[in-house]
Amino acid sequence: MSDHLKRLVAPDSWNISKKTDKFVAKTAPGPHNANAMPVVVWMRDHMGFARNLKEVKEILGRKEVIVNGQPCRDPKMGIGIFDIISLPKIGKHYRILRDKNGRHKTIEIDEESSRSRLAKIRNKTVVSGGKVQLNLRYGANVIGENTYKPGDSVVISLDPETRFAILDHFPYAPGNMAMVIGGKHSGRVARIVDIVKVAGSVPNRVILEDDGEKIRFETIDDYIYMVGREAPALAVWGIEE
Asked: What is the pTM of this model?
């Protein structure tokens, strides 16, 4: 299987030029979906930290790029929504979000904010000892409370001394704040009004209200990412630019 794909068919969410070169790196298999952006594309095409794949490999080889608290070694590793990327050598830290057009958007954050990340619970399982393991959307697994449910979000520590400790929990429930990460309302932060259960394999419908614009809209639960209770708890500035 080829390690590259034609730029013309690269996901629109990558928001890269389609005509500068014929090919672009293909994302390596991983926890994010097919729209995950390879680290090499982020470093070269989005941020300008390198001019080509060779330079990216040299930077990664020196362990100068930290993704979600771990050094990144694979230039084709996929990054996606709410991933935290740190470059300690230059003192820069970033969070990946989505803009209103569903494209990856990089937001600079401070060092304190880079020590934790938001993660959506994909599902949960019971492991040895009867403990509950939360399987997170970005690929990590943590031990949590049985009261946590799929669709909820947790804030987990990326600090080496407390890695994977759960710092906060935002239930997937009416009244709480969510970010929409897909569809025509991508990038919008709004309050859940109702969750409509749908029989069969069709995704559940979620009705939300934007407190600022005083409008209601609908999306599916696959596009919902909980970000707070009475108010958004994380830095989501810049998504409506």
From this structure: 0.86
Which two three-digit tokens encode residue 204?
């559940």
Q: What is the CATH number of the domain that holds 59?
A: 3.10.290.10
Can you give the three-state secondary structure of the chain, one letter per residue? CCCEEEHHHCCHHHCCCCCCCCEEECCCCCCCCCCCEEHHHHHHHHCCCCCCHHHHHHHHHCCCCEECCEECCCCCCEECCCCEEEEHHHCEEEEEEECCCCCEEEEEECCCHHHEEEEEEEEEEECHHHCEEEEECCCCEEEECCCCCCCCEEEEECCCCCCCCEEEEECCCCCCEEEECCCCCCCCEEEEEEEECCCCCCCCEEEEEECCCCEEEEEEHHHEEEEECCCECCCCCCCCC
What the block records as the tokens of 118 is 């938001």
Shortest CA distance to 182 belongs to which of 95, 121, 100? 100
In the chain, how many domains are there?
3
Residue 124 sits in a domain whose CATH number is: 2.40.50.740
Express each pLDDT in 157-213 by its tens digit: 999 999 999 999 999 999 999 999 888 898 889 999 999 999 888 899 999 999 877
